[in-house]
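Researcher: Re-running this chain for the archive, since the previous output was lost when a drive failed. Same request as before.
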Amino acid sequence: MKKSWQVVLAGEGGQGLILAGRILSEAAIMDGNNVSLTSSYGIAARGGYSEAQVVISEKELYYPRCASPDLVLALTREAYDRYVDFVNNNCLIIYDSNEISKPKGKQEVGYDFKDALLTLGNLKVINSLFLGVVLKNCEIVSRESIISALKKNMPPKILDINLKAFNYGLGA
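Model: Regenerated structure tokens:
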């Protein structure tokens, strides 16, 4: 497992990016790392630009934001455009293939989040789904820690569908 990670989760309000950032952060802490979580979102509760930045390291952190992301999850065209020309060639960009039709050819993985959500039968579990997809592509934290953090942060009545979405993304 890599010793440090800079992760950007970006898209629009209502996609659970801030909650997913918190879950990823808590999982990293459970794995014994130091973590910084910052978030930003527009004034609109849904639909405006939103992002969470998670910095994970075994060592002490000196800067709380992602100066050179290792991974960017881009769920909207705006999020993709904001980062694709900024990141270096070692950064993995996971993008929603429904939003980005012509990737720019960096280290990128397209994923059909809409189709997966329709298969799962619940559009509100996108954050658990993309955490699974992220973990499948990059061993940032342990699977067990993400599951523990999901259990801690999800109400019991929606925990099962979120665990199903996480495992679906992990196996996709």
